[in-house]
Design a protein that fits this description.
The structure holds 2 protein chains of 2 kinds. By secondary structure, chain A is mainly alpha-helical. Chain A is built from 9 helices and no strands. The chains are: A mainly alpha, B alpha/beta.
Chain lengths: 218, 337
């Protein structure tokens, strides 16, 4: 029984750290990635604000960011972390590379969700004299909402995966716990417990995402 | 009044080029239902979509409400589009919005005051007979109901022109009838000009006043529906007409007796009411035996067709025929052995 209590107290802080990192990283990644995805969609060929030069530049940036292995990105972004949060290590500092790593992912998820919206709907809206910005907010985004919710769910789960590496820069979290105890100290029970918490988290998020997506689709 | 002058449009894809419109000119009167018909690929949808510039013409003019649409800037084009409603083959309703909110869309776009939107939407839904479906989502509606919502949406902003792009092509025959009747009612009660594109002659016959036949990006025939039905000039028109349920005669069923020619008469509105046949019989002494016939009710007039067999002397028959021709009846000798 004691062992169980120990395990739980051992898990408490890393669980909280993971939730903290994932929540804020998702928030910032979406804040950057969502508008980027929208701009990519409307500026691409045949888009409602077609602008090939803009599309090419953004498309290139997104591809470059997505090519970086996360572990390298964390180090490369030290100067940015210092600028934003004043330090390069720790849980809060990890949010910076996590957000930057996930933002281009969000952009692609948003781009593909919006691209799925039937061109006929955009055309029908345009035929009523709607401004492209109105079409974005009243047609593209609402019509893509179920896909966007599922894409966001995917993003959160991805960030949980990335956050396991945050231990490398002192970010803590469940992944870090599993590596330190399970790998370095051969305490397999801690490793298994950490993985179980992560599995429960992912299941809960996916379940909630699916339910929400169903709710918003008519 | 819509004036289309020498509109051209070429699509380029990869190395290939496709001339969809090769210089089309048409004029459409205010308040009429004007049909554009053609086989697929003839350019009819491209032409329709050039009217509100969903398709950008390469050259030519489209005068709508006194202004050349092709010269408008983005802002003026959006203003013009508010005055031109449009309905589509696939309905194109927003699945994320209720029926009510779909009809409200053009009003939101048009900057209507909030308090005026709800009454206008309900008025429109009443017009199309869907007041009870206001809170339904499009996925809960049948095809015909969806198109009614499409019509309500297209008319909400009080446009003076309605463009219909194959609006009934995805519907079954019975629903097609009801949608066409609705369009006809709207045309009559609101005086709105309707320009409709279709590949079905039946649609043209039921509600159009005038029709243009498009063939490979050119207008090959244009006129009153009655005239095109009676004397189709272009091969496209003939082909499209042949898809209609067979009218007049069936060649294999005709009696073929020597000296008794079989003739098809086509009557238009003016002659359909006259006792042309009985007068011809009295005047010439020829016998005229009616084999089959029917009368179509077109919106602008009645068109009749009659298949008859003549008997009598050659002179009597010739005189009877020339008399009937002189009464503005179009005659076509189907068999003369």
């Amino acid at each position: 029984m004691d062992k169980m209590a120990d395990l739980i107290s051992l898990l408490a802080t890393p669980t909280w750290e993971t939730l903290y990192m994932v929540f804020f990283s998702t928030l910032f990644a979406t804040a950057i990635g969502f508008p980027l995805g929208v701009v990519l969609t409307v500026t691409e060929k045949g888009g409602i604000l077609e602008k090939e030069s803009v599309y090419r530049v953004l498309d290139g940036i997104v591809n470059i960011c997505r090519s970086f292995p996360f572990i390298i990105l964390m180090i490369v972004l030290f100067p940015l972390s210092r600028l934003v949060v004043g330090t390069t290590i720790g849980t809060t500092a990890s949010i910076v590379p996590l957000s930057i790593a996930a933002a281009p992912f969000v952009a692609r998820v948003v781009e593909s969700a919006l691209r799925e919206v039937d061109g006929g709907l955009v055309e029908a809206a345009a035929s009523t004299g709607a401004h492209p910005v109105v079409i974005i907010f009243k047609v593209l985004i609402p019509e893509a909402l179920p896909s966007l919710v599922l894409g966001e769910t995917l993003t959160v789960i991805n960030i949980i995966g990335y956050s396991a590496m945050a231990g490398a820069i002192g970010g803590g979290g469940l992944g870090d716990l599993a590596v330190r105890y399970g790998f370095h100290r051969f305490q397999t029970d801690v490793l298994i417990a950490a993985v179980i918490v992560i599995i429960v988290m992912v299941q809960a998020i996916q379940g909630a995402g699916n339910a929400l997506a169903r709710r918003v689709s008519h | 009044m819509i004036e289309i002058r020498n509109v051209k449009k070429t699509f380029r894809a990869g190395n290939g080029e496709f001339e969809a419109l090769k210089g089309v000119s048409l004029s459409i009167e205010p308040g009429e239902i004007f049909g554009i018909i053609g086989l697929s690929g003839a350019g009819k949808s491209t032409l329709l979509r050039a009217l509100n510039r969903l398709e950008e013409p390469d050259s030519g003019e489209v005068i709508l409400g006194g202004t050349d649409v092709t010269t408008l800037g983005a802002r003026d084009l959006r203003r013009l589009r508010r005055n031109v409603g449009m309905i589509f083959q696939q309905f194109n309703l927003l699945s994320s919005r209720t029926v009510f909110k779909n009809v409200a869309f053009p009003l939101e776009v048009g900057g209507w005051p909030k308090k005026d939107i709800a009454p206008r939407v309900m008025e429109m839904l009443e017009l199309v007979g869907l007041s009870d479906k206001a809170q339904s989502f499009p996925s809960q509606l049948s095809g015909g109901q969806k198109q009614r919502v499409g019509i309500a949406r297209a008319l909400a902003n009080k446009p003076s022109v309605l463009l219909s792009d194959e609006a009934t092509s995805a519907l079954d025959p019975k629903t097609t009838q009801s949608i066409l009747s609705l369009l006809e009612d709207i045309n009559r009660s609101m005086g709105i000009t309707i320009v409709l594109v279709t590949h079905e002659m039946g649609v043209i016959r039921q509600i159009c006043h005038r029709v243009a036949v498009l063939e490979a990006g050119r207008v090959v025939e244009c006129g009153k529906v009655r005239d095109v039905f009676m004397k189709p000039v272009s091969s496209t028109a003939r082909e499209l007409l042949s898809h209609l349920p067979r009218r007049g005669y069936d060649v294999s069923q005709l009696p073929t007796e020597r000296g008794k020619p079989v003739v098809l008469f086509s009557f238009n509105g003016d002659t359909a009411g006259q006792p042309v046949i009985s007068r011809a019989i009295k005047k010439t002494g020829a016998e005229i035996n009616i084999l089959s016939g029917e009368i179509d009710n077109l919106p602008s007039s009645r068109v009749g067709s009659l298949t008859v067999q003549f008997a009598g002397t050659e002179r009597e028959i010739t005189e009877a025929l020339s008399y009937i021709r002189s009464q503005n009846v179009v005659t076509e000798v189907i068999w003369n052995g």
